[in-house]
Amino acid sequence: MTKENNEFISVGAVDHFLVQIGRVVEIGGRQIAVFRLSDNRIFAAVNKNPHPKGGPLAEGIVSGHYLYDPLYDWKIDLTTGLVQAPDTGQAQMVPVKIEDGQVWIGAGELQTV
């Protein structure tokens, strides 16, 4: 991983992230779950389920732009982090950008989450 002056950290090439499979990367001691959707958009969140009992987000099942948590039967919108009704909560999403085939995670945001 390399750091850039605008507080984004490179976590690898887009092709290293499998479609619809969560992958955990570590930045500054924090686990970040990275998800590549079937349309090649990439989203990232702190790897902590917003359910009161917690658990990893990266093990969820991706379909469309939703993450399905098989442990608690929750549906989370990866574009916003919002847990879908009837459940409530919000995953802590982290900014992502793609440049020159590389995935960059907004490390500056990790200081506040």
TrEMBL record:
Keywords: 2Fe-2S, Iron, Iron-sulfur, Metal-binding, Nitrate assimilation, Oxidoreductase. The keyword Iron-sulfur applies. CDD domains: Rieske_NirD_small_Bacillus. Residues 9-105 form the Rieske domain. Pfam families: Rieske_2. The keyword Metal-binding applies. This is Nitrite reductase NAD(P)H small subunit. It comes from Paenibacillus vini.
